[in-house]
Amino acid sequence: GENVEQHPSTLSVQEGDSAVIKCTYSDSASNYFPWYKQELGKRPQLIIDIRSNVGEKKDQRIAVTLNKTAKHFSLHITETQPEDSAVYFCAASLWRGGGADGLTFGKGTHLIIQP
Amino acid sequence: DGGITQSPKYLFRKEGQNVTLSCEQNLNHDAMYWYRQDPGQGLRLIYYSQIVNDFQKGDIAEGYSVSREKKESFPLTVTSAQKNPTAFYLCASSIGAGVQFFGPGTRLTVL
Q: How far is B53 from chain A (nearest CA, A)?
C-alpha cells in the first residue's frame, strides 16, 4: 500500500518569512495530493491540492509543487502570518474517475510562526 | 464541510462495550470515509464506501465495523475487539475527484 513520509515534524519561522514542508510517497500510481491544515481540536481543512498531470499550483500565498519522477511534493507558504500556525498534513490517493480510495496521510508538520 | 455532522462530540466507553459513532451528510456526496487520529499522528483510514450497500476496509479495519444503508449515513461501530480505541475519529465525504471534506469529529475515551 501507499506510504507517505512528511518532513519536518516541527517548523518554526519568523513572521513574514517563507515555510516549506516536504512529502514523499511510495506508490507511483497515486495521482491526487491534497494538503490539510488542522488547528488544535478541530477538523482538518483542505487548503490546496494538486493532481499528477500538473507540476505546480498556486493560491495566493500558498503553492504546491509535484515531482512525479521523484515521487515528491511540497507545500510553500510565503509571507507567513500568525494565523498560519497549525499542523499541516500532506496526503496521497488514487482517483480512478468512478471513485477515490481513501487518503494516506503523512504524520504532520507543526508550523509555528514566531512574531 | 458544514454539511457533515458527527455525533456525539465526546464519547466515553467502558472496556468490553461496543459503541457506534454517527456520521451524516446532506451534501449528496457518493463516497464516505472513516479515519482515526491519535495524538501527534496523522490520520489513518479505517473504512470507506463509494456507493450505498458497499464498503471497503482501510489500513486499520480490525475491531471496527460499518454499514452504508443510506447515501447520507455511514455509522462506525467500535467493537470490544479493538484493543486501543481511545482516539479522535473523523468522518469525511467526497463528491468525487478525490476531494474530501471532514466532519467535526468524535473524541472517544475508554474508561
A: 15
Calculate how close chain A gets to B17, using CA atoms only, in Å.
25
As to burial, measured by CB atoms within 10 angstroms (0-12 exposed, 13-18 middle, 19+ buried), residue B43 is buried
- Which among A32, A98, A107 has CB closest to B41? A107
pLDDT tens for each residue of A13-39? 999 999 999 999 999 999 999 999 999
Q: What DSSP assignment string belongs to B15-61? A: TT--EEEEEEE-S--SEEEEEEE-TT--EEEEEEEEETTEEEE-TT-
All residues of chain B having their beta carbon less than 8 Å from the beta carbon of residue A107 are 40-42
Q: Which residues contact B19 (CB under 8 A, 6 or more apart)?
A: B11, B13, B77, B78, B108
Asked if A106 has any chain B CB less than 8 Å from its own CB, the reply is yes
**Per-residue model confidence as pLDDT tens for chain B (111 residues):** 559 999 999 999 998 899 999 999 999 999 999 999 998 788 999 999 999 999 999 999 999 999 999 999 999 999 988 889 999 999 999 987 678 999 999 999 998
